[in-house]
Amino acid sequence: MDIDTGNGLEIKAGVPHDAVVTHAEMMRAFEAFKEANDERLADKRGDVVLEEKLARIDRAIDAQQRKLDEIALKGARPALGAERARAPNAPEHKAAFDAYVRSGDVAGLRALEAKAMSIGSNADGGYLVPPDLETEIGKRLRSVSPIRAIAGVRTISGNVYKKPFMTAGPAVGWVGETGTRSQTASPTIDELSFPAMELYAMPAATATLLEDAAVNIDQWLAQEVEQVFAAQEGTAFVSGDGSNKPKGFLNYTTAADDAWEWGKIGYVASGVSAAFPASNPSDVLVDLIYAVKAGYRQNAVFVMNRRTQSVIRKFKDTTGHYLWQPPAQLGGKASLLTFPVVEAEDMPDIAAGSLSIAFGDFARGYLIVDRAGVSVLRDPYSAKPYVLFYTTKRVGGGVQDFEAIKLMKFAAS
Q1: Which of 43, 97, 308, 330 could bond to 304 as cystine, CB 3.0-4.6 Å?
Q2: From CA 248, how far away is CA 362, in angstroms rounded?
């Protein structure tokens, strides 16, 4: 059943009331933003009060968007016990893992390890979490990590994922029905390598928490590690140097798009150092969009931080319509020139020579490699009276298709 909110927005029954209210507030704030910005543009004196009013409304829009994201994330969290792994020993593993986390009892996990070496690891390195908990952590990371939500993801069982690709294909050509078919050249094959690096978190719990039977330990652990994992991953996927961490898409060699070659990320210059052009600033955004080939534009998104988004929010087209638009529906994303905008705080602010905006098909352009398994080592000794849980997962990442992503460089050329 659809519900009309009275402001042109239709929502599905069952959507939380606070989400409806927040979205309505955001739409009203954007209308106020447009009015204030129109006043600012019409005012030739540079009224400081107008500038402050605009900045205040801009911050309110950002705050409401973050609140909507939090509500959507909360609603996307299913009860951990509702979805069991299909492995026949999953209930036993869950019970044994629960006993290990609460009291340090390893007998159950060791018994399972004896039956199937893939279930647990030795106590020095911790024990693998139950499959349903590992799945839940993965779901949460997709929800809170902006790049993970749009990139391609591959789960592997080893330490390195290698992806072959052709740098030069086999020779081909047209030929008549009875024409001579000469032997074609062989393709040239190269490969990309994505090693999985170790990422860790160390949440702490009190003995009282662990002894409380009403506390869902699986859910507690997932909530404790998700934000830490997501923050570290988000930074690495954007700007990581590839040393003991994934290699971020901003850390590859860049080249002007007209001089682009495989292995580099192409960029479009804004034409002005540390700024958009004063006249028709949105033209360079159009140039960035069309620097990406048509096959990649179908699923392309903009990636930028909130400060860059704040600058672009003021842009209009020649008919006076704002290019940035708030989400048209609950759970949606803001859009820019009809393409979704992904807010990633690890993207750099606009500065001289900065690569502050990315655009492209990240599902094809950037690959995240997850090694199956999340391990937990219980440590009741290092921080008494607290119990530490050294939680690790292995993840890698890097660009897999250098044509799929383009950047905007805030420079003259």
Answers
A1: 308
A2: 12
* 3-class DSSP assignment, residue 217: helix
Query: How many structural domains comprise the chain?
Result: 2
Looking at the structure, do residues 142 and 274 belong to the same domain, yes or no?
yes
Q: Which of 60, 75, 90 is at the close of a domain?
A: 75
Range of the domain at 160: 128-167+185-305+344-413
Assign residue 228 a region (left: φ > 0; alpha: ψ between -120 and 50; beta: otherwise): alpha
Give yes or no: residues 33 and 145 share one domain.
Answer: no
In DSSP notation, 216-258 reads: -HHHHHHHHHHHHHHHHHHHHHHH-BSSSSPBPGGGS-EEEGG
Percent share of the chain, pLDDT over 70: 84
pLDDT score for 178: 77
Write the CB contacts of 174 (distance below 8 Å, at least 6 apart in sequence).
none
Angle between helices 90-103 and 217-239 (to 10 degrees): 90
What is the distance between the alpha carbons of residues 380 and 220, in angstroms, rounded to a whole number? Answer: 17
CATH code of the domain in which 369 resides = 3.30.2400.10
Do 238 and 155 fall within a single domain? yes
Q: Which tokens sit at 217?
A: 């330990």
Domain boundary among the residues 47, 75, 103 is at 75
Taking alpha carbons only, the member of 81, 35, 76, 75 closest to residue 58 is 35
Residue among 334, 371, 339, 298 nearest 118 (CA): 371
Lowest-pLDDT range, 189-193, 209-213, 324-328? 189-193
pTM, rounded to two decimals? 0.79
Q: What are phi and psi of 29, to 5 degrees?
A: -65, -35
* Whether the predicted pLDDT of 373 surpasses 60: yes
Query: CA-to-CA distance for 320 and 247, rounded, in angstroms?
Result: 41
CA 234 to chain centre: 6
Please check whether residue 154 lies inside any domain of the structure: yes
Q: What is the pLDDT of residues 144-195, one digit of tens each?
A: 889 999 999 999 988 899 988 766 666 677 777 777 777 666 677 778 899 9
Is residue 250 within 8 A of residue 406, CB to CB? The reply is no
Residue 55 has pLDDT above 90, yes or no: no
Over residues 367-371, mean pLDDT: 94
Residue 355 pLDDT greater than 80, yes or no: yes
Is 66 in the same domain as 157? no
Polymer length of the chain: 413
Q: How confident is the model at residue 87 (pLDDT cuts 50, 70, 90)?
A: very low
Please give the Cα distance from 254 to 186 (Å, whole number): 30
The average confidence (pLDDT) of the chain is 83
